[in-house]
Specification:
Belongs to the cytochrome P450 family. This protein has 446 residues and is α+β, with helices and mostly antiparallel strands. It is built from 17 helices and twelve strands. It binds protoporphyrin IX containing FE (HEM). Protoporphyrin IX containing FE binds next to helix 12, helix 13 and helix 17.
Amino acid sequence: MSKTFPPGPTSQELLRRIPSIQSDTLTFLTDISQRFGRVVGFHIAGLPIIVINHPEGIKHVLLDEHRRYSKDTLQYRALSTVTGRGLLTNDGESWLQQRRLAQPAFSRQRLAHLDDIVIPATEAMLEGWEPLAQSGQPVDIDAAMMHLTLQIVGKALFSIDLSRDAVNLTRATLTALDTIIYRARNVFTPPAFIPTLRNLKFRRALKTLNHAVAEMVSSRRNAGQPGDDLLGMFLRARDEDTGASMSDQQVRDEIMTMLIAGHETVASALTWTWYLLSRHPEESIRARDEINRVLGKRPPTVSDLEHLPGVGRIFSEALRLYPPAWVISRKALEEDEVLGFNIPRNALVVISPYVVHRQAEFWPEPEQFHPERFLSGPPHRFAYLPFGAGPRLCIGYQFATLEAQLIITRVLQQYTLEWAHPQAVRMDALVTLRPHGGLPMHLRKI
Ligand code: HEM
């Protein structure tokens, strides 16, 4: 086994840059990838950190040798304070069992009628936009996409109507995620039991979310019929060996995971799509021409989407430039070697889809919004990772892709969205990538 630790910034440089590494992690990751190349290594507080920037190294960690890596990292430990040991943060046998259990809810057959849920929810949002469009008042697209995607995931996976509670629940989600990112970035935070203002806000947000999930479970249990949606699958599930059903805690963790992983990510991707389209009106016009040709004014169905490849390319390119999950982390369970460099046992391994998606070696003119680059597939399977890769690939990737394309199509049929300011938006790399201060946009009816 090679003993060469990867090149990287010195301890002095790291010490000097710590505040900016915390506040602007993406600039730091981009900078070190440009200076040190494919695999970068350094230590913080004695912990070896390895950043992998090359698709072949990423394939090694996420696919070929995935068993040597776990999700026991600061990122996922912080996330599990909200999601518990749901599918996203779980590992090993227990993860595999849960993944197998949940997978049928995301089958092609199940998703074939996703438009039955996505389109009415989108129409309701668009109706609410009419008075704003008439009065010229901007709409906060970031918040609007959060409310919409939460309602969709609630209805599609758990058959519940969250339209009344969406505002409160998305606010609670954002507060909880805010604390998660704060804890993931600041190792020396006051423990959760100390009643700091942040901890109190977090507790309140968690209570709101827990209450919503507990209600979903109890009303389904009271109904006497588990139902055939994902909640029903969780309630009916029995361990093959012991025959035991999932504990209440496990059911709670899985639902919370799906609600959170299944809406904030899609909302972030859609928000950036609207931002990019407003900066590139020619792309909106092109997509609208395609939509008019295929659908006229009729709302899209899932089966229409294959005839709207331009819409698909716009969404793929938005995910390239602004991948909501901008960092993927793993812990090395044993010593390993990646592209000739040593990965010590217990090292934190970091992969940033954002950084990889902007490498000129794989993506010509990487900063430019060019949906046509997706006329052919990505230049390397592991140079495009908005949904991760390998066995831990996002379970909701087809769900998210269909949902987003349906929403983009329906909105484009009725509105042009214009970013209310001439300057570029600032980006906050939180749990997902978000526009700093929201994204107020003006609505122009078609
Ligand atoms: C554009 C939208 C989305 C993006 C960008 C996204 C991104 C990701 C990524 C990168 C991972 C892998 C993380 C890792 O390997 O460490 C992941 C996993 C996951 N995602 Fe998504 N996701 C999206 C939508 C969804 C939706 C709609 C759902 C559910 C309805 C969902 C549920 C999950 C779950 C449960 C996992 C964990 C899967 C496992 O480890 O078995 N995601 N997602």
